[in-house]
Specification:
Layout lengths: L2 H21 L8 H25 L6 H10 L1 H4 L3 H17 L1 E4 L7 H14 L13 E5 L15 E4 L4 E5 H9 L7 H13 L12 H9 L3 H8 L6 H11 L1 H7 L1 H11 L7
Parallel strand pairs: 1-2, 2-4
Antiparallel strand pairs: 3-4
């Protein structure tokens, strides 16, 4: 249910009193005011009302998105039935909280919204708190883009901490979800970055340049190639580790068991044995 359904009887009531005012007696105009005030309140607090209703009874995830997860996400398929339901519910709720600002495109497809909701829900599945507030503002470009932070670099994604904004190349975002072994999942990367910024107090593993060699062994992609793909002058290593922790967990555990255990403890989940 949406707040818009709650508004329907108020609209009807206001129209009835408007008709009575026009056709019967002007005294009925006083009765229009409460309906209009209630409609204004619903309009202003509509998103919060929808969120409250969805938390009480979360709508089922669109079957097309559920099928997409089944076809494309080994992480999802490795979850228990209970965990899958928990993840699907959170995708619905996170997707409601995201605010999209498409650039050079009119609308944002439902599957794109769900994919970003999936990444946020994936990272936070082990926690009760699953919204990465304030990083709920999403700017989408069709392809690589420059930005005020990196005006000379056409890049695939970015997290702008000051405004709580995640920026993505739609082309890179979709390729990374549909084929994460061939194309780096920039959506998961930026959600990992948002998590790190939201929870700076957590006990994160200490990494150094030698960890990049483990990343190369895990993924088959070295630091230079991955940095070039992202299009930025610097690439922090911890989000990269988090990406491969979720996308290639068995390989990650085999190559770097100590770091893998640290990330299991950090995220309170074990993707290799979900």
């Amino acid at each position: 249910m949406s707040w818009k359904w709650l508004a329907i009887p108020l609209v009807i009531l206001a129209l009835v009193f408007l008709y009575l005012t026009w056709e019967v007696d002007e005294k009925y105009a006083l009765y229009i005011i409460p309906s209009v005030v209630a409609l204004v309140i619903l309009f202003v607090f509509g998103p919060q009302i929808d969120w409250w209703l969805a938390r009480r009874k979360t709508p089922e995830l669109d079957p097309k998105i559920r099928h997409l997860l089944t076809q494309r996400s080994p992480y999802y398929n490795n979850l228990s039935a209970e965990q899958k339901q928990r993840l699907r519910d959170r995708i619905v709720l996170v997707s409601m909280a995201l605010d999209f600002k498409p650039q050079a495109m009119e609308t944002v497809p439902d599957d794109v919204i769900a994919i970003l909701g999936f990444y946020a829900a994936q990272i936070t599945l082990g926690f009760e708190q699953f919204l990465l507030t304030p990083f709920e503002n999403i700017v989408l470009y069709p392809g690589p883009f420059p930005s005020p932070q990196f005006p000379e670099h056409w890049h695939a994604s970015e997290t702008f901490e000051e405004d709580g904004v995640l920026l993505f190349s739609l082309d890179h975002l979709m390729k990374g979800f549909l084929n994460p072994l061939q194309y780096y999942p920039v959506g998961l990367h930026e959600m990992a970055q948002a998590f790190l910024l939201k929870y700076p107090e957590k006990d994160y593993p200490v990494l150094d340049e030698a960890t990049w060699e483990d990343i190369r062994k895990i993924s088959g992609i070295g630091k230079e190639k991955l940095t070039k793909y992202m299009g930025l002058p610097r690439l922090p290593i911890l989000p990269v580790c988090i990406v491969y922790f979720f996308t290639i967990p068995q390989r990650f555990k085999a190559v770097s068991p100590g770091l893998y255990t640290s990330l299991v403890q950090l995220f309170q989940q074990d993707p290799a044995h979900a």
